């Protein structure tokens, strides 16, 4: 099996409601269909890179190529773990965890998106909690960072709930307009204080060298 040679492919994170796993071709196709059905209202853009503005054919191709590119470029010193999120057997979104020189910095960053039909149910918090458990409990991270535009209230609310603290602001251009992005940082101590989601990890031990550990 390919996972014998690239064991990250066998990694699984589970909460009481969700499974996060590396998407196979069927999962990736399902992710594309979720994106087609909508990730946010068309009049707003919660992402710094407006990938959801693409025409359907370009969006599908770009989403698949992004996943393949991240796997092709994986190294223990620079990795991006892209996981699909499954709720009640249905793919509902994507959760990423990434780092550079993790063995030295012990810092990770995260990003995610969730189909509009599945929002408002606490799934966004639970899927972020799952990768934070992987980072802190599984990989021994010291800190986790993330960022969201000030108009992305849902993402900022998830970060606050999980214990992140403000870590400065920066300006960017999205859809030709200036936006303010809020950076956030979560320490190991704050993660431990705000833990409410039980998470189990399968397949981590053989994957550790691929994370630089």
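-> sequence recovered:
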């Amino acid at each position: 099996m390919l996972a014998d040679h690239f064991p990250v492919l066998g990694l699984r994170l589970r909460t009481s409601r969700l499974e996060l796993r590396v998407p196979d071709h069927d999962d990736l196709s399902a992710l594309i269909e979720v994106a087609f059905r909508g990730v946010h209202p068309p009049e707003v853009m919660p992402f710094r890179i407006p990938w959801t503005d693409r025409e359907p054919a370009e969006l599908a191709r770009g989403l698949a190529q992004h996943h393949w590119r991240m796997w092709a470029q994986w190294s223990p010193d620079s990795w991006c773990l892209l996981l699909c999120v499954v709720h009640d057997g249905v793919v509902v979104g994507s959760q990423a965890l990434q780092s550079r020189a993790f063995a030295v910095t012990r810092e990770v960053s995260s990003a995610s998106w969730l189909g509009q039909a599945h929002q408002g149910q606490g799934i966004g918090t639970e899927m972020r909690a799952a990768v934070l458990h992987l980072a802190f409990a599984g990989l021994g991270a010291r800190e986790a960072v993330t960022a969201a535009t000030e108009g992305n209230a849902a993402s900022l609310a998830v970060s606050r709930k999980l214990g992140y603290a403000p870590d400065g602001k920066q300006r960017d251009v999205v859809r030709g307009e200036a936006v303010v992005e809020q950076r956030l940082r979560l320490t190991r101590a704050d993660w431990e204080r705000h833990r409410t989601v039980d998470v189990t990890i399968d397949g981590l031990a053989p994957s550790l060298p691929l994370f630089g550990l």
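Strands lie at 12-14, 18-21, 78-87, 90-100, 107-114, 143-149, 165-174, 177-187, 200-202.
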